[in-house]
Amino acid sequence: MSATAAPTSPHVMNTYGRLPIALVRGQGCRVWDVNGKAYLDGLGGIAVNTLGHNHPELVPALQEQLTQLIHTSNYYYVPGQEVLAERLTALSGMTNAFFCCTGLEANEAAIKLARKFGHDKGIERPEIVVYEHAFHGRSLATLSATGNPKIQKGFGPLVEGFIRVPLNDIEALKKATEGNPNVVAVMFETIQGEGGIHPMRWDYLQQVRALCDTNDWLMMIDEIQTGIGRTGKWFAHQWAGIVPDVMSLAKGLGSGVPVGAVVAGPKAANIFQPGNHGTTFGGNPLAMRAGIETLRIMEKDGLLQNAADVGAHLKAALQAAFEGVAGVKEVRGQGLMLGIELDRPAGAVLTRACDAGLLLSVTADSVIRLVPPLVLTVAEADEIVALLAPIVKAFLAEPAQ
Ligand SMILES: *Cc1c(COP(=O)(O)O)cnc(C)c1O
To answer: GO annotations under biological process (predicted)?
Structure first.
């Protein structure tokens, strides 16, 4: 392979449309490819690299942990689990956590919790309310909860027991569940990520909370992308001043080390008993150390405030850059979870930004998504706009394909 040849992976399954670069090194919000070309990281490993790359406190802590103990199994107590569970419950106002490795695994656990919550009440065929355009993962149950027929195609029969409703419409939710004694839970993202950066209204969230209380349903929030400080609060639902019964976490929790969690309040904390659920890797000492250090460093360095401040700056700068630009429908989102919706498929922006040295992603075909590390500086935010704005404007000025 010559120095500039496009990388290939002929022995890796063809599950992603990959960009033709291979990244080998990172520092802060910057990454480098095999050829030494630098990129500004507006994607953060899809909202994963909370602390950026090669963080000067995270890396030594993980190195120390590697030499002590990596994995033991859940047949024994893992002291780090209690430390991280104590932190997550204190930050969320909930009571207990279960640790796993990924987002879909956290949501699977949440779905099983809801079903057993129903069975414990004598409901034999429990049903869970989910949303149009939702994304909850790629396992069969979480894919079935996902509101995107395109990625469900080819994998039927899907798992039953889900009722789908539109976002931000309380009457539709009431109508879809009216007189149905089998409903056990409502499950949603506070800001839909893969669905195109669609926020739930805070007053709607409060109405759902009230409906869950009245009907004894579990309110289950998928904070996998929105949680861990991304929107400027520890968890995005905290903007609405409510506390869910179940919350799933993953992505940013381990700053790149796979860590997932389901956090539960009193209504759901004791549903699982020994034998009901498990995982081999979940909650191992290395993963717990990554989670503990991520939260500690975030708190010490004021990264919630940074996400709120730099996010607000970035959003305002993007809005100013695209003011009056035909083809840009909206700049939306909160903190460092932002979307720029175009009036056409935006795939070309992704490749051109990559060529120009900026990493980002496109969701729901036409929404340019920015979910950079939470250590992003104002100068780096300005650099994102300076790189992105001319690319988007030039693209929109071309005749539509
Ligand atoms: C990414 C994501 C998931 C799935 O997480 P994986 O770790 O890829 O399984 C689930 N829900 C939301 C909201 C996500 O953004």
So the answer is: L-arginine biosynthetic process
